[in-house]
# Entry
Amino acid sequence: MIGILRTRLRLGRQTIAYPNGPARFPARFRGRPALDAGRCEAGCAECAAACPTEAVLGAGTKDLAIDLGACLYCGRCEEACSGGAIRFTRDYRLAMRSRSELVARGDEPRLARALDGRMRRLFGRSLKLRQVSAGGCNGCEAELNAAGNVQFDLGRFGIQFVASPRHADGIVVTGPVSENMRAALRATWEATPAPRLVIAVGACAISGGPFRGSPACHDGIAGGLPDVPVDLWIPGCPPHPVTVLDGLLRLLGRIEGDGPGVEVTQL
# Structure
């Protein structure tokens, strides 16, 4: 017991300061891509050819864009772009309120908007969420679990994952929505009392990710439950816990503006 206490004292505070201070990221972290279409060579499509999910749009033109909802953040497009038109930054603010906003261009990023005043009053400052793994690889699920550990401590914001959709304010969907999970996902959504939120986390839930086009899945929640509106899209493969935190806190109106900066650590 004494040894445990000594170790805890030596380690000190482990929870990141975010959102009251900069978030810590490993040196290899890739965030929102910065695009400079002026550096594109006309007709060049090397970056698009290197992308495994066809997330690069308008390659070799002034309309260069990247669909963050399909991007795996593998960095292959950046490596293939000899002109330097694509560069991944450390901007972790990736969550958006609409699917169309996930198409990143050279302009300033649009940040996730808060729920309207009525919805914020209904949910208050906390959220109870039921997570549904709809056929994914468990990468996004692992990051959602990590969001609750001592490093990120999701619970300090009043956000918790619950065991039953009947106790939830909304559902968090991961995975490409396989045919085998489609009925279970709908049943979970229907069991969640209204008004309810739907949050799509990860490239698979947004666009199908690397599983897009597979006959075994529906290319994400839009294909699996086309009649269900999505309130928040959080891209990544998988998204970092701070990206998830940033999106959820912006949805609740607890972060406005640019937010805190980024601290890089060697992990």
